[in-house]
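TA notes, week 10

Several of you asked for a full example with nothing omitted. So below is the full record: structure tokens for the whole chain, then the designed sequence directly under it. When grading your own attempts, check the secondary structure regions first.
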């Protein structure tokens, strides 16, 4: 925080298909700090976790290179809290979410439960929480009829479901609203999978004061007229408060 206050800048690195949402939220946090937002668009989602050699090593406890070298102060990218990520960076939680199965509306009746995913083709981004969940599920519940995994970014994965190249994709419930209501309306949420996960923004583990500032900012967002409620309504199609209420109605499979 001393450097942010001295430079009057906060370096915000965004990634993923919802980078416009993350950009808007990050700018609002900069406004909260009364500093200038410096927005950096990363070339891939995985780059957030890369070491100096450009690789993601899950077993390593070293902080990601972009946080360690000061390129980024903050990832406002709605990161799922995972044990391997917490070894590398700090994640300040903002809300809970579920993974959801996304299919074409014409095929929704074929997707009602976890077993219905067996033998199907899925397109997802590599090294995401969706990837980890599928690998675990293929080794356990679907061991005798595993899902066939294809890797692509979120945009390509959604289009692959839309044109029938794959059977389904996975995305967090928050992103599902945006995709199924605004971007590709022929797609639909079939059902949630897994358990609820904490979602938050990430910083360097040693940046305790920045984490405290994030926590204070998040507390203010529970008000109905908060900045993040407004931004979510614009970019997701549902306010953050309404989304939290919606998550409470899910039963996972």
């Amino acid at each position: 925080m001393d450097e942010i206050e001295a430079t009057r800048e906060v370096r915000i690195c965004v990634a993923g298909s919802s980078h416009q949402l993350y950009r808007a939220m990050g700018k609002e946090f900069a406004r909260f700090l009364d500093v200038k937002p410096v927005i950096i668009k990363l070339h891939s989602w995985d780059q957030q976790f890369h070491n100096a050699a450009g690789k993601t090593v899950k077993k390593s406890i070293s902080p990601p290179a972009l946080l360690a070298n000061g390129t980024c102060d903050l990832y406002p990218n709605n990161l799922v809290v995972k044990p391997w990520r917490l070894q590398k960076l700090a994640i300040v939680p903002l809300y809970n979410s579920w993974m959801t199965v996304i299919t074409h509306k014409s095929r929704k009746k074929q997707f009602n439960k976890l077993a219905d995913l067996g033998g199907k083709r899925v397109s997802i981004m590599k090294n995401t929480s969706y990837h980890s969940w599928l690998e675990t599920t293929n080794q356990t519940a679907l061991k005798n009829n595993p899902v066939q995994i294809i890797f692509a970014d979120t945009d390509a994965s959604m289009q692959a479901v839309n044109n029938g190249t794959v059977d389904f994709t996975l995305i967090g419930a928050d992103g599902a609203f945006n995709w199924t209501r605004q971007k590709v309306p022929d797609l639909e949420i079939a059902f949630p999978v897994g358990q609820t996960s904490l979602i938050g923004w990430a910083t360097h583990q040693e940046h305790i004061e920045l984490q405290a500032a994030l926590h204070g900012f998040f507390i203010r967002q529970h008000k109905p007229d908060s900045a993040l409620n407004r931004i979510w309504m614009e970019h997701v199609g549902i306010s953050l408060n309404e989304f939290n209420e919606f998550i409470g109605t899910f039963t996972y499979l």
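The CA atoms of residues 160 and 215 lie 38 Å apart. Use that as a sanity check on your answer.
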